[in-house]
Amino acid sequence: MITKHEAKDRLKIRRIPCVIAYINPLNIVYSNFVDELSVLKSGIKYKWDNIKLHEVVGGININESQHSLLVCRDGLIALPAVYGYDEHRITREFNFIISSFMLGGHYIRSVDIENIETGFLIDKKYVISKNYSNCYPNVFHRNIRFDNASDIEGALLSSSPRVSINELIAIYNRGNEAVNLLSGVSVDILLRGISKLEKREWLDCLSLLWIVIEQLVARIWSSKVVGDESVKSSKNRLNQLKDNRAWTIANKIEVFFHKKIISMDTVNNLNVSRKARNDLVHGGRPPVQSDVNAAFSAISELISAVIPDFDCAIFRRGFDEIVGSSLVKGDGPVVSTFDAEMPLLPGLEEIYELVEIAERD
């Protein structure tokens, strides 16, 4: 019989606290080609190995940190609970990471506080949740993990895209290079804006994307106009160019065009989105789809002005593939799982016994 102290020591090794979100839209992640999850149809039912869905297939080293992003087969992503359980900080951390995937060409929707769950890494092999969110996609993942999915959800799992962990690592690294070069630009806000675009929430989308446009314009103005060698030699010119009251966004856009920093198409897109933003703020007129499409196109080209070798086509393709196939909101079927139980993963029964001993009075 082990003691309470021994049980606690074993739990520290076998059950590591973590915070959880999910790759959405759904992706099944595999470690190699013979490791892919099989989803078979039997009559009208779909069958799969729900134990396998809990398995960690690999980790991605996160920029300037000592920890990795763990990725499970069903697209669950987990970080060690190094920040405690500050839900606002955790949400922003996940969105910064997801932004790297987005800029690397693999679109994943932003996460909100309601998407965050807490859980455990079990025996360095499985990740389980200990508290459950009742929003999509969390309910969907709970259903497929607990083998309680509807036929529609089974069909969705069966038809979901497959991606290897090595592909995800390469995409993250490529996107993270861009994130590092976009200092001063809120890439997490860009991600939120694009997620709103996908959901056709034009008002929120334009508000968020305009923040990023202003940041990119300020970045280009500082580096390519104010930072020009011919300007640095004159303190008066330098101070005059730093005066944002004299140099409005519209004036800066015109200067960028004449300096051949941006094309006429970008000028037109910026002017369309600027007018839509002003109409929204000053007149309460909500934007339309063409307004936010112009803002998104302008951002793509402004990023290219900041990062000359940025692959704008990969960035756009990763988003266009999802938006092109998305109907209205991208939300899926939600089925109640109150009567479902977590499958008994290998070693989990021993963990439960250790928890019982460790929590005894």
Notable characteristics:
361 residues, alpha+beta, 6-stranded antiparallel beta sheet, two-stranded parallel ribbon, 15 helices, 10 strands, 52% helix
Overall description:
The chain is of the alpha+beta class. The protein contains 15 helices and 10 strands. A 6-stranded antiparallel sheet has the order 5-6-7-1-8-9. The longest helix is centred in the middle third of the chain and has 25 residues, at 202-226. The two termini are 16 Å apart.
Write the layout of secondary structure elements.
Layout: H1 4-14, E1 15-22, E2 28-30, E3 40-42, E4 45-47, H2 50-53, E5 56-61, E6 68-72, E7 76-80, H3 87-103, E8 117-122, E9 126-129, H4 138-145, H5 151-159, E10 162-164, H6 165-181, H7 187-198, H8 202-226, H9 229-232, H10 235-241, H11 249-258, H12 264-283, H13 289-306, H14 312-325, H15 348-358
Parallel strand pairs: 2-10
Antiparallel strand pairs: 1-7, 1-8, 3-4, 5-6, 6-7, 8-9
Helix/strand-derived category reads alpha+beta
Low-pLDDT stretches are: 326-338
**Beta-sheet strand percentage?**
5-15%
Rg to the nearest angstrom?
24 Å
Percent helix:
40-55%
Mean pLDDT: 86
Number of strands: 10
Largest sheet: 6 strands, antiparallel
The neighbouring-strand order within the major sheet is 5-6-7-1-8-9
